[in-house]
UniProtKB/TrEMBL annotation:
<dbReference type="GO" id="GO:0003995">
    <property type="term" value="F:acyl-CoA dehydrogenase activity"/>
</dbReference>
<protein>
    <submittedName>
        <fullName>Acyl-CoA dehydrogenase</fullName>
    </submittedName>
</protein>
<dbReference type="InterPro" id="IPR013786">
    <property type="entry name" value="AcylCoA_DH/ox_N"/>
</dbReference>
<feature type="domain" description="Acyl-CoA dehydrogenase/oxidase N-terminal">
    <location>
        <begin position="11"/>
        <end position="113"/>
    </location>
</feature>
<dbReference type="Pfam" id="PF02771">
    <property type="entry name" value="Acyl-CoA_dh_N"/>
</dbReference>
<dbReference type="InterPro" id="IPR046373">
    <property type="entry name" value="Acyl-CoA_Oxase/DH_mid-dom_sf"/>
</dbReference>
<dbReference type="GO" id="GO:0050660">
    <property type="term" value="F:flavin adenine dinucleotide binding"/>
</dbReference>
<dbReference type="InterPro" id="IPR037069">
    <property type="entry name" value="AcylCoA_DH/ox_N_sf"/>
</dbReference>
<dbReference type="InterPro" id="IPR009100">
    <property type="entry name" value="AcylCoA_DH/oxidase_NM_dom_sf"/>
</dbReference>
Length: 358
């Protein structure tokens, strides 16, 4: 007998089939609407990883991954906007009890009353410091450029990261709106995920008080836990792959292609999640990178097959095949670090088409 799905997996399924999937092509062209965000907020999924004491579900990692697969497969743009929320939630959950910003925000974020964005990938450019934080008037002053910030106009608050003059990574919360010292660019027009309302942010003396700070720690301490994270395959890659394979179930010969790729997907997914569940995140990095790269291979094959099977109609902007192929392209660079980029390029260079390389 199989166990019934976790309630959040069922809710993700309903959100996907009733709200996200039916409008995915339109959303891809016009942007994630506020109504989708309202539905995400109501679903309980924003609290999937949040502590129960604050109104979240503290669900097991397997549930977190499955809900991400379901949302990403239905509408990658909506998945990505809400995906930003989970890093701020985890940062607050790990902060010491009684910290003012934790007590103020963790409950509303866990219960889905507020949606958070995050601006922190720029930290990984260290020792280059795109966002510098200095002590000023008993608080913190932010200067520099955030190259990527997703969900502008959709999220309520943002967690902003920079590096202090003492070489610490500092994370603080502020409202996600234009304010003195914080100016957004126009929304970026991108090959994929334009719908995610991604902007860059110019910071010129944004001042935040001490009680907005969620984390302040030596850069190396932060980087040591951050570095291994993105060596794991993203559940979104498996979600997009499965959605592309579903488009192939139309009849031979596409059906046979789907059968073969589905078996490959099952195998690489099992391997990737076994590694993700390994208790020491900094171990077995080579294997994690190999599984991540294989996951990209299967995704590329699946989204390509969906386009091939669709013929000329697959080029229509209303076709799910072209949308999934572009979303898959975005996932190739999402959360990319220098290590991931090197491993992926290495694998692409090593694997020549059969009969071409010896
Ligand atoms: C559409 C879109 C939306 C995004 N939204 C967000 C968001 O909301 N919040 C967010 O935080 N991020 C966001 N990102 C950033 C994303 O997660 C990745 O960090 C980013 O795609 C990596 O590529 P890059 O071009 O920014 O980094 P690059 O500048 O190309 O750097 C890639 C990696 O190289 C290394 N590196 C870079 N410069 C140096 C240097 N000088 N010395 C040593 N190593 C270096 C770092 O490890 C870095 O991670 C978004 C990206 C995209 C494409």
């Amino acid at each position: 007998m199989t166990a019934p799905p976790h309630p959040l997996v069922s809710r993700a399924g309903r959100l996907a089939s009733e709200v996200l999937a039916p409008h995915a092509e339109r959303v891809d062209q016009e942007g994630v609407p506020a109504s989708s965000i309202a539905a995400v907020k109501r679903s309980g999924l924003l609290g999937v990883s949040a502590p129960v004491a604050y109104g979240g579900s503290a669900a097991p990692a397997a549930v977190v991954r499955e809900t991400a697969e379901i949302l990403a497969g239905a509408c990658c743009s909506t998945w990505f906007v809400q995906a930003q929320h989970h890093t701020p939630v985890l940062t607050l959950a790990l902060a010491e009890g009684g910290l003012p910003v934790r007590e103020r925000l963790l409950g509303p974020l866990a219960r889905g009353e507020l949606l958070s964005g995050v601006a922190y990938a720029q930290l990984r450019a260290y020792p280059r410091v795109p966002v510098r934080v200095s002590r000023e008037r008993g608080g913190w002053r932010f200067d520099g450029t955030v190259p990527w910030y997703t969900g502008w106009g959709l999220n309520d608050v943002m967690m902003l990261a920079g590096v202090t003059d003492d070489g610490e990574a500092l994370f603080a919360f502020t409202e996600a709106r234009e304010q003195p010292g914080l100016r957004p660019s126009p929304p970026m027009r991108l090959a994929a995920l334009t719908a995610s309302r991604t902007v860059s942010l110019e910071l010129g003396g944004l001042w935040l008080p001490d009680d907005a700070v969620a984390l302040r720690t030596p850069y190396e301490t932060w980087a040591a836990t951050d570095r291994p994270k993105n060596t794991n395959a993203s559940p979104a890659v498996f979600g997009v792959t499965a959605a592309a394979l579903d488009l192939l179930d139309t009849g031979p010969p596409a059906k046979e292609t789907a059968r073969v790729l589905r078996a490959r997907l099952g195998e690489v997914r099992r391997r990737a999640y076994e590694l993700a569940d390994h208790p020491v995140p900094s171990e077995r990095i080579e294997e994690r990178l190999a599984a991540k790269t294989l996951a990209y291979d299967v995704m590329r094959a699946a989204t390509t097959a969906a386009v091939v099977a669709g013929g000329g109609r697959a080029m229509d902007l209303g076709s799910p095949a072209q949308r999934l192929a572009r979303e898959g392209m975005f996932l190739l660079v999402q959360g990319q670090t220098a290590t991931v980029r090197t491993a992926h390029l290495g694998a692409l260079g090593a694997a020549g088409p059969a009969g071409v390389t010896g």
